[in-house]
Amino acid sequence: TFETLVGIAILLNCVTIGVEVNALVKAQPQYVEDVLSACENFFTAFFLVEFLLRVAFIGWQIYVPGKSPLGIADAISNIADACLVWISGVGMAWVVPLIGVDPGNL
Known about the structure:
The termini are far apart. By secondary structure, the chain is mainly α. It has helices spanning 2-25, 30-57, 72-98. 75% of the residues lie in helices and 0% in strands. Helix 2 (30-57) crosses helix 3. It is built from 3 helices and no strands. The protein is elongated, with a radius of gyration of 16 Å.
């Protein structure tokens, strides 16, 4: 199902984050840095598409406490997920580098 696919993507993204943290401590070959960069862009795009699909098929109400059909806790969880996608994903991976700032320095 869609939820299973998203769960697998989350687990794989966690693995790449772990490798990225390791690369901060121990120098890695350039190809590892290139693969990590490609993975970051892939997962950013994947989770952005996931967000857009949820809005398209379920509706924006799932992000509004009091309007989410599954309750306030679900809406808050969805807001946190959306913030992860838009701030740490799209913002840090794509927008910040566009304005000439190295995200590693933030």
